[in-house]
UniProtKB/TrEMBL annotation:
One of its GO terms (cellular component) is NatC complex. PANTHER family: N-ALPHA-ACETYLTRANSFERASE 38, NATC AUXILIARY SUBUNIT, SMALL NUCLEAR RIBONUCLEOPROTEIN-ASSOCIATED PROTEIN B AND N. InterPro entries: LSM_dom_sf, LSMD1_Sm, Sm_dom_euk/arc, snRNP_SmB/NAA38-like. It comes from the Eukaryota. This is Sm domain-containing protein. The lineage of its organism: Eukaryota, Fungi, Dikarya, Ascomycota, Pezizomycotina. It comes from Oidiodendron maius (strain Zn). Residues 52-74 have a biased composition (Low complexity). Residues 52-85 are annotated as: Disordered. Signal peptide: none annotated. Residues 8-100 form the Sm domain.
Length: 127
């Protein structure tokens, strides 16, 4: 992807809802506002979601296991905790995954816009 294509793609993401997962398993969901050369991302209207860890749910493994002190999410039935942050900067160095949140209603609107954009051409050709 060349620079112009990359810029066009970033512009297409402006004001879209992104889900960003960080290396400490937190997830941020909000509207994409901007980024920089260090891959820091600014989200507005953002929520932070923290998933329960095995230590916080009371599920403990044997103390001899080296993974018992890690903060990996469990397969537990507990819901993630969330809080509203407003505007947040997610450091690019800690981002592990970025996902575009699209709903069926958003995809349908785009399809309807394309149909409406084509219709005036057909009307002009028919005149």
């Amino acid at each position: 992807m060349d620079k112009a294509q990359a810029e066009d793609y970033l512009h297409s993401l402006l004001n879209k809802t992104l889900r960003i997962t960080t290396d400490d398993t937190r997830m941020f969901m909000g509207r994409f506002r901007c980024t920089d050369s260090d891959r820091n991302i600014i989200l507005s209207q953002a929520f932070e979601y923290r998933f329960p860890t095995s230590s916080s749910t009371g599920n403990t493994t044997s103390s001899s296991s080296p993974s018992s002190s890690t903060s990996e999410p469990t397969e537990a039935t507990e819901e993630p905790t969330s809080r509203y942050l407003g505007q947040v900067v997610v450091p690019g160095a800690h981002i592990s995954k970025i996902e575009l949140e699209e709903f069926a209603s958003q995809v349908k609107k785009d399809t309807q816009r394309q149909v409406v954009a084509v219709r005036p051409k057909e009307v002009q050709e028919g005149v």
